[in-house]
Amino acid sequence: MAGQISAIRKRLQTVNSTKKLTKATELVATVKLQKYSTNTQSNEEYAKNLRRFITVALRGEAPETEDNPFLVDAEVDNPLYIVITSNSGLCGSYNQEVLKYVKENVSKDVPIFAIGTIGYNWLMKNDYLVVKKYDELEDLKPWILNGLIYNILLLYRNNEISEINVVYTKYINTLTYKPETLKLLPFTPEEQNDAQSILLEPSRNEVLNTLIPMYISSQIYVCFLESKTSENAARRNAMNVANKNAETLISELQLNYNKARQAAITQEMNEIVASGRR
After folding, report:
1. Nearest alpha carbon to residue 221 among 98, 131, 132, 115
2. Whole-Å CA distances, 245 to 29, 55, 259
3. pLDDT of 1-53, one tens digit each?
């Protein structure tokens, strides 16, 4: 009986310690969720404005046959994918959903830039063609993002890849987020009905060659921020469930502990009474 009480007590201590950890993780995830959500909104507006500028620039005098490399189809058929996952777990099915989406929608023969350790490890294990890995612990720093953009645009300009796609997790609300693909290049212009042409200086192509890489960079950053927002929403939800499960388990263990302790007291009293009758 004493051994049972001791085991339950140790189990209670373990579960209480785990609950403190999951509670702290939930609080941190909540703070990060708010931070990334705010950053996503501000950077998303910046990316939208860049796209509007590009739409206006496209009204500049264009050649008879479009020759801007960002607007025409490549000669090769070799799309590149940027796959965004997390560097750590404890975020429910967040990473599993992204990797399931990759399995169903991305060929193993196309080049992949992997952002996130968990995605990189899974892609390598499953024989995907990973050509670059980024595993920054928290933020995709501007200089790292610039390096990423330079590398993929160099491949695109050299006609080594035909598309640039981002597989990320779109954040809808704190309970809903889903993986999807955003195609960045070739750039798809928005329809302009009865739009008047404009004169651009220094030239239409030079303006587009400046604006489109800026848009690509900003849009990749928005995808990264949305993925981080989704990751922290998933982590907060997972930790919230873990906390509730821990509270239920603690209640059950406390009840079992009280029962075992009461049984031990009753047994001791019976032994005392029995020894007094001898």
Report:
1. 115
2. 18, 52, 21
3. 566 777 878 888 888 888 888 899 999 999 999 999 999 999 999 999 999 88
Domain that holds residue 177: 22-237
Flag whether 256 is in a domain. no
Which residue did the predictor score with more confidence, 239 or 258? 239
Task: Give the C-alpha distances (Å, rounded to integers) separating 39 from 35, 222, 224, 228, 259.
Answer: 6, 8, 11, 10, 52
Let me know if residue 246 belongs to a domain.
no
* Domain presence at residue 148: yes
Neighbours of 87 (CB within 10 A): 17
User: What does the pLDDT average to over 116-133?
Assistant: 93
The closest of 215, 170, 245, 253 to 56, measured between CA atoms, is 215
Among 147, 109, 144, smallest CA distance to 130 is for: 109
Does 219 map to a domain?
A: yes
Total count of domains within the chain: 1
Which CATH number covers residue 46?
3.40.1380.10
- State how far the alpha carbon of 168 is from the alpha carbons of 27, 82, 178, 180, 214, in Å: 24, 8, 8, 6, 19
Instruction: Look at residue 17 and give its three-state secondary structure.
Output: helix
Residue type, 211: L
Distances, alpha carbon 209 to alpha carbons 43, 86, 212, in Å: 21, 32, 6
pTM of the shown model: 0.86
Closest CA to 4 of 257, 250, 269, 246: 257
Q: Quote the tokens at residue 4.
A: 């049972």
Q: Which residues of 43-71 are buried (b: 16+ CB within 10 A; e: fewer)?
A: bbeebeebbebbeebbbbeeeeeeebbbb
Tell the residue number behind the tokens 């058929």, with chain if given: 77
